[in-house]
Amino acid sequence: MGTFVKISIVSILVAYLAFKWTAPRFDPESLKGARVLVTGASTGIGEQMAYHYARFGAQIVITARREKVLQQVTEKCLSLGAQKALYIAADMASESDPDKVVDFALEKLGGLDYLVLNHIGPTPFAMWEGDMEHTRWLMK
């Protein structure tokens, strides 16, 4: 086999592997019906994250301190296509509110698939794997 053929084969293989590794892997259908909790969702990044999940048809629970603003965000989430959009006014700096929020989300959604923790507070970085006690700890 000639040098040109070998280089061509290797080039094609490298191009194919590069395409496979860099090709988008996100499946929008994976968020349809997903159960999502977004904290700090009354404005800014948290609000926009709620809208993002809503466009994909997720079931969303949002929380922040200002109930009136949460009502408006919830209404917009529903208009954008959320399967379900609920809110609970809470202060994540409070001792009891994080538990209240998690319990509300579990009761209304039957579980959680995604957490968007957009409230301020120190937390070590780690992947969430569905542990509700760990979730309560993260929220505090």
TrEMBL record:
Keyword line: Signal
Pfam families referenced in this protein's UniProt entry, alphabetically: adh_short
Signal peptide interval: 1-22
Source superkingdom: Eukaryota
SUPFAM superfamilies membership: NAD(P)-binding Rossmann-fold domains
Family designation: Belongs to the short-chain dehydrogenases/reductases (SDR) family.
Protein name from the UniProt record: Hydroxysteroid 11-beta-dehydrogenase 1-like protein
